[in-house]
Amino acid sequence: MHIMQSPIWEQFKNAYGTTAIRVENTLYTKHRIPFTNSYYAYCPKADPFKINFDVLRKSLAQNNCIAINFDVPNIVDSSEEASEAMEIFTEAGCKKAPRDTFTPYNLILDLTPSKEDLLKNMHSKQRYNVRYAKRKGVEVREEFGKKAFEIFYDLAIKTAERQGFYIHPKTYYEKMWETLGNEGVAHILNAYYKDEPLASWMFFVYDEVLYYPYGGSAAKLRNLQASTLVGWEGMLLGKRLGCKTFDLWGACEDPNDRSDPEWGFTHFKQKFGAKHVKYIPSYDLVLNPFLYESFNFANRARWTVLNFKKQFS
Length: 313
Prior knowledge:
Blueprint: H1 7-16, E1 20-23, E2 26-32, E3 39-44, H2 53-62, E4 65-71, H3 82-91, E5 95-96, E6 105-110, H4 115-121, H5 124-135, E7 139-143, H6 145-163, H7 170-182, E8 186-193, E9 196-206, E10 209-217, H8 226-240, E11 245-247, H9 263-270, E12 275-278, E13 283-286, H10 289-312
Parallel strand pairs: 3-4, 10-11
Antiparallel strand pairs: 1-2, 2-3, 4-13, 5-13, 6-11, 6-12, 7-8, 8-9, 9-10
Helix pairs in contact: 1-7, 5-8
């Protein structure tokens, strides 16, 4: 089960104030459509083989949802079960979604080899940078509580501002850290040079998978490769906690396309030895076709404005 379908994620979402509803093994959140009494349901990373569509339809109707978006189901497009998974959605009356919210591309790394083999499987430059950071005195610590979070958020918001991408409000990450951290699911690793924080990543550990969803780094002393060392220490943390897979939470479409704005981060993550994968398409199950089409029209306009503002901000 992907962490975004887990009971701990359900607990976090409800604690944050986003209504999360579980229907057997499927978790969705509902979001009110402005100026209406209707809702849109969002279900990321679902496993189509575990969805009970009959019971789900009843739940959606009871919660006044016009549709549910199965955003980037957790099935790799090249896997043996991909065709059957897509057929499940089609037979249930779903249609391919007009857009993805979660990225349909990812980087996955096998954590089962030995520490020595994991290092050997890295790109030679990444392996060198891990050793270089250690040699130069960068120290990585797993830290807890409010201090750990404040360092993480400070570096995350500075990185977002520097690189021009959107992140959630601080309260979102605070509630996430409080909920998942208290259950031993979220872990923060901070990298220091002479007690100055240079990089911070938040990892999730769930169902034998290590996830790297969020992080940030300082603008200065980037030559010390603190982020590379945090990534490596995160892999070792995952192994100690019994993880078999490292999910690096997204990549660009083509890791060879240097013109893609996400290429740099994808290339950095790929050098840890990760494999680039694509997931099957997102699907929508529509209960109210008229409101669904109206919602999509408004949503397209919203994203056009946001992308325009991003270009010129």
